[in-house]
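Please go through the protein record below and explain what the tokens say about the fold. Record follows.
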Amino acid sequence: MKHDTNQEAPLVREVFPDLVDELAALLEAEGERELAICVRDVRLVGPCGCGDDFCQSIRTVDRPRGRPFGPGHRCVPLLPSSGDLILDVVDGRIMYIEILGRPPLRRHGQPEQGR
């Protein structure tokens, strides 16, 4: 029986609710209604892992690193008020949330800093 680590990973909305709210609103604004609904159920499988200080990207599925997404892949660039938010989507499933050049993400329950 295959072990599915995706089901054990926390939902992104539970860890970074503000991010998911922003993504849902931006997706709605871009006419991506299905993805706006789906983004509420993506899991935080892990960080990007690149080590760049400007990157806070999130892996939402467990897949081999460095391999292309393959057929059915598309990038969905969004227009946030700061930095870059880009989704990698395969056949309607959000595979990766690219978060670049943005203020540090606030975890649920973490107080705001510097305001």
